[in-house]
Specification:
globular, 17% strand, two-stranded antiparallel ribbon, alpha+beta, Cytochrome p450
Length: 217
């Protein structure tokens, strides 16, 4: 690829890797996000009710969710953000410094690998408050930028900056669509057999699965 300001090339291998990432983020990440969302809404039926009321007010019980309507689902968005904060699909990211650089007063040489511990930052009480480990979607009521103490930029479940996940918007749109269709048709709760055990195998999964009981409405 050529830009007007110089050569910014991507090899065929680079393009293939980006396509694989798009697919992975849009499928696996969405699956994990939906799993944790159903688990958490099973634990917090009051928020499940709030989300269903919103979905029904926008789409009713029979209308297929569409892009315009999904953009108006504020409560559903808040819930998904809070689930991503507590249970980010990727618990950490690695970045390699391509040149000597200074971050926060510390100089890092070229080639050093920096680990970004997403799940640790997302649970840090100094950033999110003493309720950092609690499910509180209302913290995102004014958007991501206002969710933390002192408006610190600390929410990055899909990464940040120029290397942010290419599939982020696709994954969130899929998750809103699927969750809306579930809420239109079912009430659900956790099975008594469910054991809460987050476990990382590439992504953050429930170690013993997610046993959820559905009732058609």
């Amino acid at each position: 690829m050529e830009s007007g300001k110089g050569s910014l090339s991507m090899s065929t291998e680079d393009v293939i890797e980006e396509c694989k990432l798009f697919y992975f983020a849009g499928m696996e990440a969405t699956s994990v996000l939906l799993t944790w969302t159903l688990v958490i809404l099973g634990m917090h039926p009051e928020w499940q009710d709030h989300a269903r009321e919103e979905v029904l007010s926008v789409f009713g019980r029979d209308k297929q969710p569409n892009v315009d309507g999904l953009g108006r689902l504020k409560t559903v968005t808040m819930i998904l953000y809070e689930v991503l904060r507590l249970y980010p699909p990727a618990v950490s990211l690695n970045r390699r410094a391509f040149k000597d650089m200074q971050i926060g007063g510390t100089t890092y040489p070229a080639g050093v690998i920096l680990e970004l511990p997403i799940i640790v930052v997302h649970h840090n009480p100094d950033v999110w408050g003493n309720d950092a480990h609690e499910f509180k979607p209302e913290r995102f009521a004014e958007g991501i930028s206002k969710a933390t103490k002192d408006d610190q930029p600390a929410f990055f479940p899909f990464g940040w900056g120029p290397r942010i996940c290419i599939g982020q918007n696709f994954a969130l749109l899929e998750a809103k669509m699927a969750l809306s269709m579930i809420l239109q048709r079912f009430e659900f709760r956790l099975s008594p057999s469910y054991t809460h055990a987050p476990y990382t195998v590439l992504m953050l999964h429930p170690q013993h699965g997610a046993s959820i009981m559905f009732n058609k409405i």
